[in-house]
Every structure is written in C-alpha cells, then in structure tokens.
Amino acid sequence: MDLSDTTEVEVARRAARRRRTGARVALYGLVLAFTGMAAFPFVWATITAFKRNQDLYNRANNPFVFNLDPTLEHVDLLLSGTAFPTFARNTLLVGVLVVAITLALSLPAAYSLARLDMPWGGAMGIAIFFVYLIPPSLLFISLSRVVATLRLQDSVWALVVLYPTITVPVSVWLLMGFFKTIPREIEEQATIDGYSRFGAFARILVPLAFPGIVAVVVFAFTLSASEFIYALAFVARTSEKTISIGVPTELVRGDVFFWQSLQAATVMVAVPIALVFNLFLERFITGFTMGAVKG
C-alpha cells in the first residue's frame, strides 16, 4: 500500500468518525428535546406552586422563574385549608382494595382462559376485553342502579365496587397473554412432582407471571387514583372524596382558581407515583409487551 492509499484510508476513517459523532450528537439532542418537553409541565407546576399571587398574576413577570421570593402559603392552604390528607387516604384505600380485587378476579380467570382447553376460551377472552371498550357514560345508568341497590351512595365503597368493572377486563386480557408465554411443560413438570393444578398455579405460574402482575397492579392503582367520571357522579361528601375529584372541587370555587395550590397537589401526587413507577418500570414494560404479543 503506497502513501496515497494510506491517506485515502485515513480520510475515510475520519469521515466515518465524523458521521458517527454527528449521528450521536443528533440522537442525544433529540432525546434531550423530548425529555425537556416531557418534563416541562412538571417543572412549570413546581415553580407555580411556590409563586406568590403578585408574581403569578403580573403579566410583566417571567412565568418560568421566581420574580419574587417563593412562598409556602399555597402548600399550607392545600394541606390545612382543604381535606387533602383525607382525599389522599381515600385514594390509597380505594387503590389498594381495587388492586386486590382485580388480582383476585383476573388471575384465576386469565389462567382458566389461557390454560384450560375450552373451545370458547378465545371468544370469551375477547368478549371480556370488549367490556373495557364500552364508554363509562353508557354504563353510568346501570351502575347507578347497582350503587343504589347496595346503598353505597356518597361512599368511597361505591368506587371500590365500580372500578374493578374497568380494571378486571384489561387485566384478564393482559394476563391471558402472559400465561400463554409460559411453557406448558413447566406446569406439567410441577404436577409430576406432586403439585395439584392449584398448587402449580400458585407456586409456579404466579411467580413466573410476576412482571404481568406488576403491570396489572400499576394499571389498576393508576386508574383508581385518576378516574374522574364515576368519582364525581357517585361521591359528593367531602369526607369520602378521592384526590381526582376532591382537589378540583375544593380549589375551584366558582370562577376563582387557586392555581398555586392546584399545582402543589399535582406535584405532591405525581412525585411518589413516579418514584414507585420507576422502581418497577422494567417489569411493567415487560408485562405489557409480553401480554400484548400473545394476547
């Protein structure tokens, strides 16, 4: 190889390095841009929560910085001037109970439809999932009769009864797909080792389906904490409200919006949910993707 060939190779290598560097910079820039877009509402809400009224409502002030010293008065209004602690306790109660009911109903149902050789199993699974596609506004009248019959009006227990009608269909569909990804040979080996069908299900399949269970838990709890229509329709007493309706009804009074306290509630609810969600993010994605592939 002569000198000219060596020079051409070096030039080609430099050009390739520049292309790789440019592509990497473009990728990182794109990721940073999307990260900024996703984080912007949360950052803006955090800044707004600590702004003084004179700072927030002055059009000449920059809305994204503290033009005046920050204050905790709006956080104090949220915690002591409203029933926010009660809303949070009710939300946690509803979420935990709905998750428990959802798992208790969806795990055996999904296992039966996925594992037992029933000619109508696939059609039944699709029919269960279609229930989730019915708009809540169409189910409102029939569910109101159920709530009235059970005498649960203006009670947090009405939400515990109603929310599984939303969470169970999706959870059954999701877990069906996940159980189908587990080889039947594992279950058959467990029965050979002396386990009953229930024992193999409880001791072998449920631990293997843990990512799918995590996805169901996150889905059911998040929906219970954020659902608005049923909570607004069936609960009116302040002592029974959840965060999704308690915060807006307490902090929106006529045409007066307590913006800073509303944003403070947003931050206080979002932070713990985001932390817990990130702890199980990998398993959550695994559960949804594996369930979707085989569903």
Oligomeric form? single chain
Helix-and-strand structural type: mainly alpha
Helix content: over 70%
- The CATH topology of the largest domain is given as MetI-like fold
CATH class of the largest domain: Mainly Alpha
The assigned CATH architecture of the largest domain is: Orthogonal Bundle
Series of H and E elements? HHHHHHHHHHHHHEEHH
Sheet bearing the most strands, described? 2 strands, antiparallel
Strand content: under 5%
- Poorly predicted ranges: 291-295
**Strands, count:** 2
Average pLDDT level: 83
Instruction: Tell me the domain tally.
Output: 2
Provide a count of the helices: 15
Give the helices and strands, then pairings.
Blueprint lengths: L2 H47 L3 H4 L16 H8 L3 H32 L5 H12 L3 H14 L6 H7 L1 H18 L2 H9 L4 H12 L1 H17 L2 H6 L8 H9 E2 L2 E2 L1 H21 L1 H14 L1
Antiparallel strand pairs: 1-2
